[in-house]
Amino acid sequence: MQSYSKFLQENLKKIILFGVPIFYFLMAVSFYLITYDSAQIKISILHVIGLFLIMSWLVLKIEQGANFDFLKKNFIFIFPVILCLLSGFFSYAISPFKDASFNEVIKRFIYVSFVFILVSEFHDEKNISRIVHWLIAAAFVSTLYGLLQIIDFRFFPPPPNPGIDPFIWRQAFGSRILSTFGNPNFYGDFLITMGPIVLALFLHKRQPYLLILWILIIINTLHTYSKGAWLAMASGNFSFVLLYVFVFLRHKITKKIVIGAIIIATLIVSIGAFGIYNQSKARMDSLSFRIITWLATWDMINTHPIIGTGIGSFYVTYPAFRRPQIFYIEGKHNNESDHPENEYLEVWFDEGIIGFTIFLTLLGFVLILGIRNVLFLHQKSNLSRDGPQYLAFLQFGLIVSLISKLTHDATCVSLRFVSSGVMLWLLIGLTIAIGAFCLQNDDGTIKNKLKKPLKIILQIAVMIVFLGFIKFLAGYFYADILHSRAITYSRAGQSDIAISNYENVIKYNPTFPMSRYFKSNVHFERWKAGDSAMAEYEFLKLWKMAPNYVQSKYLAGMMYSRLFEENLIARNNYIDQGASNEMIAKQTEYVTRLFNNAVRCFNESLAIDPIYPLTYYRLSSLYAMVGELATAEKILYAHLQYPDKLRQEPHNLWDENWRERVMPEFSETYFQLGNLYANHDSFKASVDAYQNALNIYPEHLFARKNLAAVYEKMGDKDAARQQWQIVKNLAPDDPDAIRNLSK
């Protein structure tokens, strides 16, 4: 049995020592375009391979007799990491949104566990360098593909014409490259992390391939056109120059070296600032989007500033706090913001000031530890060139990478995206592992504290739990494929197959709110017997998960509105047919309940998105149907007047003429107002409304047609003919204009 134990330990050790580097390689280079989200493969790698490696490590530790002495020996290093894990668990426990929080706390557990694995098993140069070599390989793969994307955009036509990028996402972001990361900002985060590491190792080894890779990283970073990545690159290069001078040249330092370093650092900052300024001028909406999102996030923080709302709960909470200007900036109403583009604000919101303080303490501790590691290792530079000096340069690169990353995370991509999150915790884990190497307090002895039967029981228990989670989380990947299929079937009008696929998505990933929203939408579009009940069921399930999800309240309002119209007609038919008073009263009660539900959903939708014009139109139409014309009119005017509210507190901190962005919408609102007046014989008011619509958008054909019809009803034939002539000039083949002008 002793030989079996040795065999098991040796093989588990190999799985970990080789599996972890390959894991980081796959996280960087993997993508899969058949799923709904091209980055889902990275999430699945984190879930499946990550948990498998953690399971293997725990089984190894149990086989060694539950030897977690590395925690005791390195407790001063590990303690802030443990606090961060406990903060995540506590935040999950108090979260009102367990589905959203589950996904995030699982990631926190995996990240922290990998720190433990790195400290426990990768505490020597050979194993640490293996991870670095795989990361360098990943950087080569991604930057070469990024270079191909640059060439593809520069010298080949846009889709649907073919180019040298063979994948369907080619030129998805125009000139901005994304390589294997699905998004230029995610790619930029990887590049600014790898850049300092590669440059530091080049300065140590002077190997040309590292210089070539660093140049590729710079070229790729510039072509992401990500202001956050540029800012992080400038911050990293600035830190790199100063730290290199004051650490590696400290014994040779002269006034000339100091002045040269200051000049170089100033140039780096100036060039970075100039580039960011020009990018901001070209894309001011990107800057205003962030500032307005941060203001809303601050409002969210103040709801539970001490303990937070719950880890991972930002995206389900944010819609209720989102500033209306965001809709003007995006020009869309069905977008969701998963993160606030600032990791520090998100941690504060999720975990409160307590969790935020723990997070900052961890980062500060790692930065200080990393600098101490560099100084300690560099002092031993008189040893072999491949000895501690290698780790000194590597640690130097890791610390500068961490500075770059923390800069980036203040303005751009969130660490909640796995391709970014794994890199932060890798930097933390490697820095602590190098700190453990510097301390050299592990004598290599293993104290076997467990009896054989207990070992087996614990190992089986660990494997059962982890394999269960792996199976469950692997379903997320299949669910993402099914979600993509369901969308395709839905767009093709194959509602039955689409609904079946959405049901399977929910089965394999019950924490995915979008599938429930899309499924309810398909039921609404199909509208067979029972579809309204199924749509309502999905809405209730969705709102339990995400109370203000995207446009779900609007869609629910549309559903209740359609049911109201159908049952209002049925109620009127009962009256015409002389049905019993009891039947009429029962139907009237049902119609009233549907009306109230529709109004409630539309009002809740306006509370979330107060500038979506269709909500105003549908709500106004509802009130018009029940004869409440003054309310219907008031609702349409509320849409016209809403931009004025954005000049008042709390919305006026970022001032802009938001009305100009959506003037065509106001033309349509005046058109709706004209229809309301015309349908109730208020012809003079109707003419004024139609004229207002045409003043904004003279080519609004329906407004001109309806204006002509109103003039005819008022007896002004010449004015009516004039409008029909304009319609014919705008649309020579318009049948209504031809018919009316031929009279």
Compact description:
By secondary structure, the protein is mainly alpha-helical. The chain has helices at 2-29, 40-63, 69-73, 75-94, 98-121, 125-155, 184-205, 208-224, 227-248, 255-282, 284-301, 314-317, 325-330, 343-378, 388-408, 418-439, 452-491, 495-508, 513-526, 531-545, 552-576, 581-608, 613-625, 629-645, 663-679, 683-696, 701-713, 717-730, 735-741. Mean pLDDT is 90; it is low at 382-386.
Structure notes:
The structure is a single chain. By secondary structure, this protein is mostly helical. The protein has 29 helices and no strands. The longest helix has 40 residues, at 452-491. The model is unreliable at 382-386 (pLDDT under 50).
Highlighted features:
29 helices, mainly alpha, 2 domains, Serine Threonine Protein Phosphatase 5, Tetratricopeptide repeat, 743 residues
